[in-house]
């Protein structure tokens, strides 16, 4: 199957998955009278699609930049840094956090960018194992910091704890998630032109420079946009009304691992190694994986649904071990 046909088939499958996701929920199976249930589920479905797009293409970009198939924003600390940035803002200035819709996404971006910078600095010049271990260490540090702040915060405790477990999709509404959704789509579109630079980086930095690529600039571009993608996928967007935010604070997904790992690997199996196809295919596969995980968690136990993070961990952890063993051998 050619890449173009694979993309069209994937889009058709994604449309079918969206229809299925809109019909699954605690109220029962179906769209309800006049599509009432589907309208209630639509914000959650759209949030999962947007976050999956960003995480899928962000994982592909990170793997290309670091030339490491084990790189993933959820495993290398970028996602954890975004959540840590939110936690810091809520812990230091909780009143200010809700005054503007963009404050929390900005805090998430700052946290993700800071973690990305540390990852590049600490893992520079080392092996794939060193980069991965650095990312895991950063992920553990940011997760611990988030939980410490959550334990010391009053009304933000449940929000941050749910975010750490990737359980924010269930609170999604159109009014509260429009800004992170737009940021996810923006990050996805802005990463697509990086395809040629990522292809040349696969041959090494010297070869890429020989073809006229600004290696440092390309790396900064990809790292910045991956941080934006992770921040948007984990950011909170709320009305500036304080009591509404406290009662119905929402985000797109929270902290979810393995989407950025699985999607690029599947994309390369389907369309080959060229990033002109890998990047968009990873985005669509990321959207399908996250939406599928959320739908599966809701469909199996409608009254007490599993979070998308739990489902992706069950599916992604064995594949991560398999990839790591293959790399070692």
Commentary on this structure:
- Helices cover 74% and strands 0% of the residues.
- It has a single domain (45-328), classed as Orthogonal Bundle (ABC transporter involved in vitamin B12 uptake, BtuC).
- The protein is an all-alpha fold.
- Helix 5 (103-123) crosses helix 11 (215-234).
- The radius of gyration is 19 Å and the shape is globular.
Q: What key phrases describe this protein's structure?
A:
329 residues; 15 helices; ABC transporter involved in vitamin B12 uptake, BtuC; mainly alpha
For the terminal residues, how far apart are their CA atoms?
30 Å
Overall geometry comes to globular
What is the succession of H and E elements?
HHHHHHHHHHHHHHH
Secondary-structure-based class equals mainly alpha
CATH class: Mainly Alpha
Largest sheet: none
CATH architecture: Orthogonal Bundle
Instruction: Classify the helix fraction into a percent range.
Output: over 70%
Number of domains: 1
Work out the strand percent.
under 5%
**How many helix segments?**
15
Can you tell me the CATH superfamily? ABC transporter involved in vitamin B12 uptake, BtuC
Query: Mean pLDDT across all residues, rounded?
Result: 78
Could you name the CATH topology? ABC transporter involved in vitamin B12 uptake, BtuC
Rg, rounded, reads: 19 Å
Which spans have pLDDT < 50 for at least 5 consecutive residues? 236-251
Total count of strands: 0
What is the gist of this entry?
With 329 residues, this protein is mainly alpha-helical. The chain has 15 helices and no strands.
């Amino acid at each position: 199957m050619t890449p173009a046909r694979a993309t069209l088939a994937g889009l058709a499958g994604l449309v079918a998955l969206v229809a299925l996701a809109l019909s699954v929920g605690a109220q029962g199976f179906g769209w309800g009278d006049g599509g009432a249930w589907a309208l209630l589920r639509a914000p959650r479905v759209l949030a999962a699609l947007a976050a999956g797009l960003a995480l899928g293409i962000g994982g592909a970009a990170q793997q290309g930049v670091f030339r490491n198939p084990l790189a993933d924003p959820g495993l290398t600390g970028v996602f954890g840094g975004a959540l840590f940035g939110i936690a810091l803002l809520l812990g230091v200035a909780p009143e200010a956090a809700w005054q503007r819709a963009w404050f929390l996404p900005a805090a998430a971006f700052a946290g993700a960018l800071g973690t990305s910078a540390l990852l590049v600095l600490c893992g520079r010049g080392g092996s794939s194992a060193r980069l991965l271990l650095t990312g895991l260490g950063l992920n553990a540090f940011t997760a611990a910091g988030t939980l410490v702040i959550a334990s010391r915060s009053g009304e933000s405790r449940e929000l941050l704890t749910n975010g750490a477990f990737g359980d924010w999709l269930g609170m999604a509404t159109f009014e509260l998630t429009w800004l992170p959704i737009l940021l996810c789509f923006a990050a996805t579109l802005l990463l697509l032109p990086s395809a040629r630079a990522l292809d040349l980086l696969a041959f090494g930095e010297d070869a890429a420079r020989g073809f006229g690529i600004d290696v440092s600039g390309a790396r900064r571009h990809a790292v910045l946009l991956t941080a934006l993608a992770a921040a948007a996928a984990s950011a909170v967007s709320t009305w500036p009304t304080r009591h509404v935010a406290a009662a119905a604070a929402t985000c797109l997904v929270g902290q979810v691992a393995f989407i950025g790992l699985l999607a690029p690997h599947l994309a390369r199996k389907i369309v080959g190694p060229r990033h002109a196809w890998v990047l968009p295919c990873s985005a669509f596969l990321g959207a399908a994986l996250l939406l599928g995980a959320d739908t599966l968690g809701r469909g199996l136990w409608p009254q007490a649904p599993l979070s998308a993070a739990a489902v992706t961990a069950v599916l992604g952890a064995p594949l991560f071990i398999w990839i790591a063993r293959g790399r070692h051998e």
